Structure formats: structure tokens, C-alpha cells
Amino acid sequence: MTRRHLTAALAAMTIGATTGGLGLGGAGAIAAAPKVPANITAALADKARPEADVKRDAARHPGELLAWAGVKSGDKAVDFIMGGGYFTRILSAAVGPKGHVWAYQPSEFIKFRAAYGEEQKTVAGAYANVTPITAPFGELKLPDGVDLVLTVQNYHDLHLKPFPADNAAKLNAEIFRALKPGGTYVVVDHVGPAEEGTPDKLHRIDPAQVKKEVEAAGFKFVGETDLLRAKDDPHTANVFDPSIRGKTDQFAMKFRKP
Question: How many Å apart are CA 145 and CA 257, to the nearest integer?
Fold first, then answer.
């Protein structure tokens, strides 16, 4: 099963280029593209990265994004909903042997697409400093004292209809607990309209909703970057629609645990 069919599958079961910023307000300003430090440059050049991943770099700007996130050698990081491991691999090499990465894959996703489980095993087996975490959303327990939690193009999944209404709130609370004081939570997702059902219909989410929810967990909004903005995206098409796939307007917001 492909990810574009994930919502439909979950619903069938019962389970407990650049433009201006988003104008979300708060203390954070729009950040310019930062210089990519040596640890992240080396991670991007890692020969173990699949060629398919490397080809996606031009659109995903992983170097600039992780530099903006502040990823350093020795960091402890969580790739929250790792998917195929695109960012897990880069984070692993960027934090280096003195750092560590936990790669979380929700059990619900693996149940409906076995390849997610296989991809998690492959990445964890290839990098000594990567530990896989597999658990249902409602039972997730992250490691203590991490420096960074990164979630890319997945926050909207926390709002898929089969999940409880408080799913995102509980997961944000767990992320807040796991991060050390001063730790960073970075959320990247497809920009969607402020309409009920947007995550299920379009696999997008309203950035203002994300900011409100994350701040409600106790986080402080630091700022945003326009690295992944795309002015030609009308925000009305499903992200898997061929007309927009790979070219969506995406927000990237950074929060900090006080």
C-alpha cells in the first residue's frame, strides 16, 4: 500500500522559488538560508545514501534545513515518523558517532504498509548510531534528554480521522517531555487551508493550527524559514496529485522547550 492510500486504509479500521513568510506572528522572524556547516555537508556527501534520496535534495534543501535547525555533531535527535529514512540517514551522519538518532515509525503505518517496517530495519542496520522505535501513537515513549525532534511532511498525519481527537496534543506533550530544556522541535509540512478535514482530504494542514497546538504543549515559537515555500501552489490539491506532487508549498517552523 502506498502512502496516498494510507488515510483510506486507516479509516476502514477502528483504532483507540521562495515567497514571504506565513505571518504567524510571535517572536520568530523569517530566517535566511544559513551556511551549511561541515558536519551536514559531509552527511549529504555520505556514499551510503541511496541515489533516489540524493536526487531529491534539490527540492528538499536538507542541508539548509538542518543547518537552520541547528544540528550539531554529538546531538541526540529523533526523526519523528521517519518514512523511508531520508532524514534519518542524513541526521545519523550529521550527528556523528558521538551522537544518536532514534527513528520512529508508527505501528499503525507499518500495519498497512509493510515496507515502512522494512525500510526502518534497513536504515537502522546500516547506521550504528540509529535506534528504531516502533509503537502505536498512543503508546509512544521517546528517550529522555534529546536535543532535537524533527518531523517532516507528517504532522498532518496526527490528525487523520481514525485517530483520537487529542492525538496531536498527546504526542506534542510526549515530545516536550523528551526534549531537554532548550531542545528544539522542528515541524515541516504541506501548507493547507484552515478547513475541517484538510489532513484527510489533502494531506496538508493549516500552519496556524500547528503553531497553536505546539505552543499549547509548552513550546516557545522561535521562528520559521521560507526555504520550502512555493508560491504557485494553490493549497487546494491533494499533495499526491500529479499536478503538484513534489512541488508543494511547505512551511518550516522551529520551537524550543524553555
Answer: 11
Q: How far apart are CA 104 and CA 137, in angstroms?
A: 10
CA 58 from chain centre, in angstroms, equals 18
Tally the domains of the chain. 1
Neighbours of 129 (CB within 10 A): 18
Enclosing domain of residue 35: 3-256
Question: What are the angstrom distances between the C-alpha of 88 and each of 15, 66, 99, 207?
Answer: 27, 12, 13, 24
Output the CA–CA distances (angstroms, integers) from residue 19 to 32, 76, 84, 231, 233, in the order listed: 12, 32, 29, 6, 11
CATH code where residue 149 lies: 3.40.50.150
- Distances in Å between the alpha carbon of 109 and those of 1, 72, 94, 104, 149? 10, 30, 27, 11, 19
Q: What tens-digit pLDDT sequence spans the chain (258 residues)? A: 444 445 444 444 333 333 345 656 545 556 666 799 999 999 999 999 999 999 999 999 999 999 999 999 999 999 999 999 999 999 999 999 999 999 999 999 999 899 999 999 999 999 999 999 999 999 999 999 999 999 999 999 999 999 999 999 999 999 999 999 999 999 999 999 999 999 999 999 999 999 999 999 999 999 999 999 999 999 999 999 999 999 999 999 999 999
Beta strands 250-256 and 179-190: pairing type? antiparallel
From CA 154, how far away is CA 80, in angstroms rounded?
A: 8
